[in-house]
Write a structure and sequence with these properties.
single chain, mainly alpha, 7 helices, AhpD-like, about 75% helix
């Protein structure tokens, strides 16, 4: 039986990343990886993302900077899509990418802009 924080975490995770992503992540978990998926859902999504002190858009923008600094571009794209879903505007996203380029370095900024351009084109129906 899942606790309240896990249930909140699963709901937040679905709101930000989408049902298809969450369903796939949970379905692909095996006996070895399932405890990790449960931990991420409960503590990351339920404990941190479930804290009402920050709204989802703010959390998304913070994540973009941190994930870029870690050079985890697969996760960065996922959270870029989440930031759009959470209401981040094109101007806010562009500003975050400028800050990433200054604080994480131009190569990180170039890669983030490349991903962002592709995702925005897809969303606009241009890809």
């Amino acid at each position: 039986m899942k606790n309240e924080r896990y249930l909140l975490g699963e709901a937040r995770r679905r709101e930000v990343l989408g049902d298809a992503y969450v369903d796939k992540a949970l379905a692909e978990a095996n006996d070895f990886s399932r405890p990790f998926q449960e931990m991420v859902t409960e503590y990351c999504w339920g404990g941190v993302w479930g804290d009402p002190a920050l709204d989802k858009k703010t959390r998304s923008l913070i994540n973009l900077g941190m994930i870029a600094a870690l050079n985890r571009m697969h996760e960065w794209e996922l959270h870029f899509r989440g930031a759009i879903k959470n209401g981040a505007t094109a101007d806010e996203l562009r500003t975050v990418l400028h800050q990433i380029a200054v604080y994480c370095g131009a190569p990180a900024g170039v890669e983030c802009f490349r991903i962002a351009k592709r995702v925005l084109a897809e969303k606009a129906g241009g890809a």
